[in-house]
From TrEMBL:
The keyword Amino-acid biosynthesis does not apply. CDD domains: AdoMet_MTases. GO terms for biological process: methylation. One of its GO terms (molecular function) is S-adenosylmethionine-dependent methyltransferase activity. Keywords: Methyltransferase, S-adenosyl-L-methionine, Transferase. This is Tocopherol methyltransferase. It holds the Pfam family Methyltransf_11. It comes from Chamaerops humilis var. humilis. Belongs to the class I-like SAM-binding methyltransferase superfamily. gTMT family.
Length: 287
């Protein structure tokens, strides 16, 4: 089943990713059209976090800044620890991968953040938290894994405190034109191959997310297409896989990881065809 595949995929591949790319398992944000520098990728990943916070107008004001944060689909906790430090907040991360949860916790201890960041294996669609707990609800590149987007956003809204900010940064497919019922067969075909490789269920568009947020009475709903800003990312990941270290680690990692690596050019194709969109959706839970 899907959840098991996701857990195994990240159990298997997270070490390799960390050894080459560090603790942020998400796209970097680059100036559109500017050439990416080889050393700039880590900075671009941090910039992604900062751009998301800025887009959602999360405040640095000591009185109003987030104090309790949930990181839904936390990977090895790169965002959690960054946000916990930045805001002096408490952050709880959930992931389906036991290996990730353990590694995230170990890194928190190593950084002296054990009282501020904690991690557990849990399902985003059935979060182990009571209602109305968090003033920042953060999902960085996990939404694309969720088989039920309505339930997903519903859970984000449920655990959000009144007035909380909800930020979803995720892979989407392009918006459909008014005359279209669905994507074109060749587009569906490409997405199917990508979904197979990365343990993803069917995708939706950014405007589908907006509709879901509206149906849940969320407020200040904003969305943007950052596809141009992430364009240098996949070529950089491919280059890193083609280094000696990348290549040998890849061969040692396992079949799920290799399958993922082989699908990387498909992501570039999807972006080039304007089929894949890198989207941010931000909103607020009513007071
Ligand atoms: N947000 C992290 C990791 C992104 S990778 C980062 O930016 O570094 C996608 C993450 O989503 C993985 O940790 C995976 O375990 C998690 N995930 C996917 N489906 C999930 C689900 N149903 N419940 C909880 N986590 C999920």
């Amino acid at each position: 089943e899907l959840g098991k595949g996701i857990a195994e995929f990240y159990d298997e591949s997270s070490d390799l990713w960390e050894s080459i790319w560090g603790d942020h398992m998400h796209h970097g944000f680059y100036d559109a059209g500017a050439p990416a520098t080889i050393t700039g990728h880590r900075a671009a990943q941090i910039r992604m976090v900062e751009e998301a916070l800025r887009f959602a107008a999360v405040t640095d004001d000591p009185l109003k800044k987030p104090k309790r944060i949930v990181d839904v689909g936390c990977g090895i906790g790169g965002s959690s620890r960054y946000l916990a430090k930045k805001y002096g907040a408490k952050c709880e991360g959930i992931t389906l991968s036991p290996v990730q949860a353990k590694r995230a916790q170990a890194l928190a201890v190593a950084e002296g953040l054990q009282d501020q960041a904690s991690f557990q294996v849990a399902d985003a669609l059935k979060q182990p938290f009571p209602d109305g707990q968090f003033d920042l609800v953060w999902s960085m590149e996990s939404g694309e894994h969720m088989p039920d987007k309505t339930k997903f956003v519903g859970e984000l809204a449920r655990v959000a405190a009144p007035g909380a900010t909800i930020i979803i940064v995720t892979w989407c497919h392009r918006d459909l034109s008014p005359s279209e019922e669905s994507l074109q067969p060749n587009e569906l075909n490409l997405l199917k191959k990508i979904c197979n490789a990365y343990y993803l269920p069917a995708w939706c568009s950014a405007s589908d997310y907006v509709k879901i947020a509206q149906s849940l009475s969320l407020e200040d709903i904003k969305t943007a297409d950052w596809s141009e800003n992430v364009a240098p990312f996949w070529p950089a990941v491919i280059r890193s896989a083609l280094t000696w270290q990348g290549f040998t680690s890849l061969l040692r990692s396992g079949w799920k990881t290799i399958k993922g690596a082989l699908a990387m050019p498909l992501m570039i194709q999807g972006y080039n065809k304007k089929l894949i969109k890198f989207a941010i959706i931000a909103c607020r839970k009513p007071m």
